[in-house]
Amino acid sequence: PSRSVDGTDGAAAVDGGGRHGQEEALTTLYELEETIEKRRTDVVKEGDKPSWTRKLLDNPTLLCEKVREEAGELCESLENDEGKDRAASEMADVLYHSMVLLNLQGVGMEDVLAKLRGRFGTSGVEEKANRPPKSKQQHRTG
């Protein structure tokens, strides 16, 4: 079931974005999330080449390498003053790879957005101090 939140006129048709532009952004995240889930559950037939998403889902080590690599490239876009378009492109890569990682952990965008909403009105220093200690559990796949 698709979780589209954009208007009947199509969010992209609205100049300047506004409310429909915000809805389009959420719809894009939800559609990407659904595509990642579909790639995870699709059966790859013998002889068929798996999608890049499926390769990442099947290889957590490669996936973590890509998340780290893309985050570094996002930082480089700032450090090297590569401009807004490059920063947006690198963030898209970070977001995509991070969403694949979250899929492996059973974490949806709604979970992430709820965490962000819960932080509104709280100082970053205070919020971090109130977090429970990080677990040292081994990474599990499957």
Question: Which features does this protein show?
Answer:
mainly alpha
Strand content: under 5%
Largest sheet: none
What's the helical proportion of residues?
Answer: 55-70%
Number of strands: 0
The overall pLDDT, averaged over residues, is 84
Structural category is mainly alpha
- Element string (H = helix, E = strand): HHHHHH
- Figure out the total of helices: 6
Overall body shape: globular
Radius of gyration: 18 Å
Our measurement of the CA-to-CA distance between the termini, rounded to an integer number of angstroms, reads 23 Å
Poorly predicted segments: 4-14
Report on the architecture of this protein.
The protein has helices at residues 18-41, 52-58, 60-79, 84-104, 109-119, 124-129. Helix content is 63%, strand content 0%. It is an all-alpha fold and 142 residues long. It contains six helices and no strands.
What is the element layout, followed by pairings?
Elements: H1 18-41, H2 52-58, H3 60-79, H4 84-104, H5 109-119, H6 124-129
Helix pairs in contact: 1-4, 2-3, 3-4
Short description:
The protein is an all-alpha fold and 142 residues long. 63% of the residues lie in helices and 0% in strands.
